[in-house]
Amino acid sequence: MSVAAQQQPWLHAPFGRVATAMVTPFQPDGQVDLAQAARLADHLVAHGSDALVLCGTTGESPTLSWQEQHALFAAVKDAVAGRARLIAGSGSNCTAEAVEATREAAALGADGALVVVPYYNKPPQDGLEAHFRAIAQAAPTLPLMLYNIPGRTATSLEPATVARLLDLPNVVAFKAASGTTDEVSALRLACGDRLAIYSGDDALTLPMLAVGAVGVVSVASHLEGPRISRMVQAFLDGDLPLALALHEQLLPLCRALFCTTNPVPVKAALALSGWPVGDPRLPLLPANDDVKQRLCETLAALRPT
Fold first, then answer.
1. Catalytic positions
2. Which of 125, 199, 257, 296 is placed for a possible disulfide with 208 were both Cys, Cβ 3.0 to 4.6 Å?
3. pTM of the complete model
């Protein structure tokens, strides 16, 4: 733990400051490219990522089989070799499936699990509490990051519900992806220092840090990991002018990467940057020419740090 975190407990970041929500590379025939995944993971860790999130939304988890997810985790774990924390996406809208996936993540040696709010079946708050409680109790030694993204799930995990879950010692973090800093403030009021809140929106990382977040689960860090890491550290060091300048440099990229459905733009941007990671699997399609042109212009405009 840093000196700053020791002096201010809310700064404690169990998964580091910058966790990259890693894409899943595919070969031209559509199979998972384990060798490229290993190379990409090594590159990300060497360029600012304290943790990698595997098989999350950006990793196209809905289209990956369990066997593919396990193989991907093993390949990345070997490549990273303990240099970064590995967080396995293990959420599902079926509680039994999420329980089994989280147990498997623990067995595979994950450092944590990202568990998303159940999607489509729209459970009420007491159902959400029971869902996450079952997952946490099934793998009691595995740290969990709860993941709230109502734009994809149609249901939002309320701060009061999160607060009730904090009697579970392995519920340690929260990925806030509702698109508003108000969520961070509400979580801080309900949960205090017990919960480490991570921005789930690259464009809101600095604003969320200002109201109590401790880091970011980032997509843009595929391309600008060092700059994002510098921005977070500048804020923690109290160098607000530098943090703001870096935020403003990054903002056009953050917006471009979400100009259509994630991970379509980031996969195109990686290819444009010399990292062929393949097209997304259906029902997503590759980036069209307009998206590629915007990404080209945005990447070219980024000033060297």
1. 147, 175
2. 199
3. 0.95
